[in-house]
Amino acid sequence: MNAVTMLESDHRTVETLFTQFRSETGLLRRRAVAERILAELTVHADIEEAHFYPAAATATPGAPELVAESEREHAEVKRVIAELQRMHPEDAGYASTMEHLEQLVRHHVEEEEGELFPRVGEALGSAKLEDIGRAMDEMKKAALPRA
Question: For residues 56 and 7, is the Cβ–Cβ distance under 8 A?
């Protein structure tokens, strides 16, 4: 699978999970959705940092700055994920922290899909994106066996 297509698919998955989290009223189901959100985001960031960002950073002028910004955003997302992992869905502040995470992710997705992916996708070409996608898929399957 094309790396950009895979990353965009991950974005849609997490958007759907955030919607499910907001609509869940049962504590056990809400906890399960929250855990999946955190796992999906963690694996997504890891595969993107390991395979896509290194190739993207050298793809075209201006890409290193876009990748650096994306990496800063990942660091903030990971910080909030760690905070949520220390909490429980029934804790005061959990829902607002999850909402903050969703806002961070939404902003990150808009920037990647609006700026980084189009520029890098064109510069790398479909064959290279397929190679990167295969490597990302292997790493993702090892981390999320159901993926």
Answer: no
Q: In which domain, by residue range, is 7 found?
A: 3-143
Of the CA atoms within 13 Å of residue 54, those in its CB half-sphere come to 8
Domains: count for the chain: 1
pTM for this structure?
0.94
Exposed/middle/buried for residue 27 (C-beta within 10 Å: 0-12, 13-18, 19+): exposed
Q: Which residues contact 11 (CB under 8 A, 6 or more apart)?
A: 109, 112, 113
Amino acid at 108: H
Q: What is the pLDDT along the chain (147 residues), one digit of tens a residue?
A: 899 999 999 999 999 999 999 999 888 999 999 999 999 999 999 999 999 999 999 998 889 999 999 999 999 999 999 999 999 888 999 999 999 999 999 999 999 999 999 999 999 999 999 999 999 999 999 997 664
Rg (CA), the chain: 16
> Which CA distances in Å does 92 have to 14, 71, 84, 104, 120?
23, 29, 11, 20, 41
Burial of 116: CB neighbours in 10 Å, binned 0-12, 13-18, 19+: buried
